[in-house]
Amino acid sequence: MLEDITGAEPLDLLDSMRAPQLRSMLMEHLSDRFMRQIAFNLFQRMRHSVQLLSCINNVISHEAAMSALPEVMLAGISELEPLRGRMLLAIDGDLIGAMVDAMCGATAAHPFERYELSALETRVGKQMIDLALETITDTLNPLVPLNLKPIAYENATGMLAIADGQDWMIAVTGIFETTLGSGTIKLIAPYAGFEPLEVKVATQSGLLGGRGLDAGWTSAIERLTDTTPVEIRFELARATVPLAMFDMLQPGWILPFTLEPEAIAVSDDIDLFLADYGQADGYVCCRVKAVPEGDMDMVDQKERSAAERLVEPERVELERIQAQPRGAGAISARHVLDRVHVALTVELGRTQIAVKDLRALRHGQIISLDQMVGEPLVIFANGQKLAFGEVVAVANDRYGIRVTGLAEETAVESGGVG
């Protein structure tokens, strides 16, 4: 469809490559596990009820990840070796305060606006960060031997940065609840830093499965492949004609085809094998013929040569496209259509066959088609149904295809009768 479009934007074909893929899926699979384990370890260490309410995963920019941190919090920064980059783990000040209150014997929450952490809260917060990083290390250990030890602690959000502002981050937010209050634990790590882990996991079977071949995956693919139907069409004749010929195409025309003694089985424009054709139980059928390897290429070349003899296309040199001013006249349609050639094919019929049956085809096997004996043959132009035809004698024991009706007219007539 030709339109005058203004304000079109460039298409970034690599955009999908930058979108979250296996790395974020991997973290989503693991994060809920280690956040729940963090809640359990905090309960064991602090002897105070801690529950994970939800775990949220995002892939966002570094700037967005930093701006989402709580105003009052304590963060620990750790190296990701042997992966790349640094990881930041921040605990909400409200969650730290609730844990300290519980350790000090408080029995009821005292909501108030928190502006900073006390010395005791900072000390306990560091212990919570150390405990959380140990838990994450244990969770990731089957995949990669990390040693997540804090190299620095920071409680001012303006002082935190682990990458460039434009870098993508994997951000995991765990929301925890205690009897004395609730808060969050945020894990932020560079998306690019997990690339080695992604490559390692991709070579294993399943997201977190063992190494080696996945028998379930292999058998599922084999079952799917064996039961997938493949459409095969059987072509009787091929030719190439100018597109301008269709302006004059009428029923009764004899198209420039040479009827071949054998049908060519085709799937997805690939010649598969040759077949004799006949009839059985009122339907057209084909008998598979064994063709030595390499002969199908010769058949295809023979078909092209025959088509070239029937219609000799004009040799046209490519011309450089010149910019046309607005309001310029249209080019001659006839001039264009005379240069464009269309591939015509005549089909004997079609069938669908499962891949496992296609693999088992042998010389002499008979395949029944969807074409009833006596029905008109279908003529296709560049894969589109064009017309119907019948075989007629031309001269000197030669046969051709006469057009008996156009496909659109036939569809209109059958619709009117219905």
From the structure above, extract its key features.
single chain, 418 residues, alpha+beta, Chemotaxis protein chec, Surface presentation of antigens (SPOA), 2 domains, 10-stranded antiparallel β-sheet, 6-stranded antiparallel β-sheet, 11 helices
What is the strand arrangement across the widest sheet?
Answer: 8-16-15-14-12-7-9-10-11-13
What class, by secondary structure content? alpha+beta
CATH class division of the largest domain: Alpha Beta
Query: How much β-strand is present in the residues?
Result: 25-35%
Report mean pLDDT, rounded to a whole number.
80
Explain the overall architecture:
With 418 residues, the chain is an alpha+beta fold. Helix 2 (22-46) packs across helix 5 (119-140) and helix 4 (93-103) packs across helix 5. Mean pLDDT is 80; it is low at 205-211 and 302-321. It has helices at 15-18, 22-46, 62-67, 93-103, 119-140, 195-202, 215-227, 295-310, 333-339, 355-359, 407-417, and strands spanning 51-61, 73-79, 86-92, 150-154, 168-178, 181-190, 229-242, 254-255, 263-267, 270-280, 283-289, 341-354, 366-372, 377-381, 384-393, 399-406. Strand 5 (168-178) and strand 6 form a beta hairpin. The strands form two sheets. The chain has a ten-stranded antiparallel sheet. Strands 1-5-6-3-2-4 form a six-stranded antiparallel sheet. 31% of the residues lie in helices and 32% in strands. The protein is elongated. The protein has eleven helices and 16 strands. The longest helix is centred in the first third of the chain and has 25 residues, at 22-46. The protein folds into two domains: 19-211, 3-Layer(aba) Sandwich (Chemotaxis protein chec), CATH 3.40.1550.10; 226-311 and 337-417, Surface presentation of antigens (SPOA) (Roll).
